[in-house]
Amino acid sequence: MEASAGRARLGALVFGAMAAEAVFAAAQLRIADVISDGQRSCDDIAAEIGALPTALARLLRVLAALELLAEPVPMQFRLTEAGQLLRADQPDSMLAFVRMFGDPVMLSAWRELETAIRTGETPFERIYGTGFFEHLSANPDLSERFNAAMRQGTAVAARQVLRHYDFGAFRTVADIGGGDGTLLAAVLVNHPSTRGILYDTAAGLAQAGATLAKAGVGDRCEVRTGDFLEAAPPGADLYIVKSVLQDWDDDNAGTILAHIRAVVPDHGRLLIIEPVLPERVDASAPVTMYLGDLNMLVNLGGRERTLAELKRLCEEAHFSTASTIRLAPPVALSMLEATPR
């Protein structure tokens, strides 16, 4: 790479933090909802959201430079394909995701990344005096925003998961740490003879009733409140853990798997759905997966893992991994099926 190209690359990365703040501001101001399917002038948008037109124009042009908006004529803007994802009414909307991951609560610990690298500590716990999920439980509005962000990502992933795994082979499916039930609801909708157990903390389950009712599967899904670090619910022949192990260090992740092993029947299965890092950095994993690993370090004390590391956790919990499937982009997840031994 030539020196000039290198400078441009490094400069773009440093300014990336500012770009993220611009996107977060657009989400907070609901600019995409105002523009919708049309083309709107800066003055019209400003009047609708209660903003100063001269200041808003500067933000809109940044968003156009970031290819979230297009500016066909001066000071007239429409949404691009990517910009449409900031609308609340889109099926694959990322609005809740942007609002959560742009929130100061999520970002403040990143300012202590250097300290985390030197010490291995989780800065979030020092800044807020408690763990990430305990902080969510004490702040219902933030917890609801987090659950919404997880729901949006899970809804996209669920479509691929259903294509690659035969949930119909099981009588009862338990989703451990399943949040509002987005994934489990999709499984039950597609397999009418299957029953479900949704297991999470009270804060995690806060929106579960509405999700299950909307999907029409509330009568086939038992909602159980509990802590997967203390126990797993009996009664299922398939146990799912999606984007759960990454939130915890090896000791706690092993505890979660051990609790599942204690209740899974001999003929049962464990399905782990997680980001899986390659053994070395290559093009097979998006950069967001590596950034997600650092996010686990600063905010939760968890980590993303390689396939070998996940297999080792399974083996230590007396599971044997049977198969692995990497889901297609933009879903940066893999599925590992394991059997009890």
TrEMBL record:
GO terms for biological process: methylation. InterPro entries: COMT-like, COMT_C, COMT_dimerisation, SAM-dependent_MTases_sf, WH-like_DNA-bd_sf, WH_DNA-bd_sf. Residues 110-320 form the O-methyltransferase C-terminal domain. Keywords: Methyltransferase, S-adenosyl-L-methionine, Transferase. It comes from Mycobacterium spongiae. Gene3D superfamilies: 1.10.287.1350, Vaccinia Virus protein VP39 (3.40.50.150), Winged helix-like DNA-binding domain superfamily/Winged helix DNA-binding domain (1.10.10.10). Coiled coil: none annotated. This is Methyltransferase. Residues 13-86 form the O-methyltransferase dimerisation domain. One of its GO terms (molecular function) is protein dimerization activity. PANTHER family: O-METHYLTRANSFERASE CICE, PUTATIVE (AFU_ORTHOLOGUE AFUA_4G14580)-RELATED.
